[in-house]
Amino acid sequence: MKRINIICAVVLVMSMLCSCTDKTAEIMNGPANGIGCSIYYIDGATQKLSSEKMMLDNGTNEDVVFSAYEKMCGIENTEERHSAVPEGIDTNYIKIDSGTLTIDFKPEYYTLSSGDELTLRTAAVYTFTSLDFIDYVYITVCGEPLRRTNGQAIGKLGVKDIITDGNISAEPTNYEILTLYFKSADDKGLATEIREVEVNPNQPIERYIIEQLIKGPENTDIKGVIPSDTKIREISTADGICYVDLSSDFVTKQIGSPSDAKAAVYSIVNSLGEMESVNKVQFLIEGEKIERYKDGVDISKPIEPNYDITFE
């Protein structure tokens, strides 16, 4: 059974966030005796998230958060900039507990395109965590947590939890959530890593899955086992079988143990198998079938995912 589906969205970029990782809110003394907060919006010229320090009225912490959200909504849409909050998106309530802000939206939140939702979610996390009493943001809709398409709750988000890759573009692009399989830390099986990446909708998602596997895991506790020099020659899916044609580097530069070689095969098969359209994977090396991979796994025929696989 597939464990996760892929969702699409207009891409947000790490480059648009790189200057936003430090907390910037501070109590500002002055005539207004208010609180300074970095309010995030989309810059019209660069199409990147940017921010402006604005003063918020004093009050309870909840009052301050509501004031910040009103500032986000109140960004005037011009050629220079526009609000990260689409019109008609209102809140039911907010609650703050031990540094975690829960913000509950009305059901219109579900009408947002995946791109607008991702933009709002990211801007909200960066805006609210710029307040010195907020460390995480937990978004709910009518009391229910946001969920990925596999049913997993997204949970609370901090600045470091926003993993993005790419740029906001005037051209439509996709933002995909992929489940990738790497060798586990104990070398006895496979472990998963969920990653969000920018893709070109005119390219097969399968290609991006393999590319990410070749890059290796971001979690240093798990292990990448596909040779980094491996190139993708061709990739396509038909009738439930994904045909993966790799360069000879996949074979000749695999210098790991026999279990590493087996893990490399099932890293690819299981990751591709997360797609609804893929039931099996047929490997080709330089356009040709080979009998065995490193004298181990028979890859001459299509291989089914094995999510319970173990290595001795």
Count of helical segments?
Answer: 6
Mean pLDDT: 82
- From the spread of the alpha carbons, the general shape counts as elongated
* Element order: H for helix, E for strand: HEEEHEEEHEEEEHEEHHEEE
Q: How many strands in all? A: 15
Assign a percent range to the helix content. Answer: 10-25%
> What value does the Rg take, in angstroms?
23 Å
Structural class, please? alpha+beta
From the N-terminal CA to the C-terminal CA, the straight-line distance is: 25 Å
Largest sheet: 4 strands, antiparallel
Uncertain parts: 3-32, 163-172
* Beta-strand content bin: 25-35%
Topology:
Blueprint: H1 14-17, E1 26-27, E2 35-43, E3 49-56, H2 61-73, E4 81-82, E5 91-97, E6 100-105, H3 114-128, E7 136-141, E8 144-145, E9 174-183, E10 190-199, H4 205-215, E11 232-238, E12 241-246, H5 249-252, H6 258-273, E13 280-285, E14 292-293, E15 297-298
Parallel strand pairs: 6-7, 12-13
Antiparallel strand pairs: 1-2, 2-3, 2-4, 5-6, 7-8, 9-10, 11-12, 14-15
Helix pairs in contact: 4-6
Please summarize what this structure is.
The chain has six helices and 15 strands. It has helices spanning 14-17, 61-73, 114-128, 205-215, 249-252, 258-273, and strands spanning 26-27, 35-43, 49-56, 81-82, 91-97, 100-105, 136-141, 144-145, 174-183, 190-199, 232-238, 241-246, 280-285, 292-293, 297-298. A hairpin with a 2-residue loop joins β11 (232-238) and β12.
Description:
With 312 residues, the protein is α+β, with helices and mostly antiparallel strands. 20% of the residues lie in helices and 27% in strands. The chain has six helices and 15 strands. Strand 11 (232-238) and strand 12 form a beta hairpin. The longest helix is centred in the last third of the chain and has 16 residues, at 258-273. The protein starts with 13 loop residues before the first helix and ends in a 14-residue tail after the last strand. The relative contact order is 0.12.
